[in-house]
Design goal:
This protein is mainly α and about 120 residues long. It is built from 8 helices and no strands. The chain has 2 domains: about 1-65, no CATH class; about 70-115. The radius of gyration is 19 Å and the shape is elongated.
């Protein structure tokens, strides 16, 4: 996981340390990384002058968590409507797995039995 590899968790979970020059520099790098990884639409919604990485991370998280329930309902419906049609069995199972994985990311785990049915 990137956050563990680069030891950035403290920057998004702990209080700011504005008097620590190394922390401020690291936070600026993390903030830059966050801003360059989101779409321009999301950037416009979350950008704040003088914000810390934790504040921007919280804003990004809020955007996605506000829509989580709606996304879960939409994906659950989509999951149940996936048909094989003319696609290969590998493509069909791939679409099922992708949708199930997205639901799991939202806290709505699709049980094996549901996937088989």
């Amino acid at each position: 996981m990137v956050s563990e590899k680069y030891a950035v968790v403290a920057h998004i979970t702990s209080a700011a340390r504005p008097n620590d020059a190394a922390w401020v520099q690291d936070d600026a790098h993390i903030l830059s990384w966050l801003y360059t990884r989101v779409s321009s639409e999301i950037f416009r919604l979350v950008h704040q002058r003088g914000a810390t990485a934790a504040e921007i991370w919280a804003a990004i998280l809020s955007l996605f968590m506000e829509n989580a329930e709606h996304q879960a309902v939409f994906l659950a419906t989509e999951f149940r409507r996936i048909e094989q049609g003319g696609s290969s069995i590998i493509d069909y199972f791939g679409r099922l797995k992708e949708c199930a994985d997205l639901l799991a990311d939202l806290g709505e785990v699709v049980q094996d039995r549901e996937q088989v049915l």
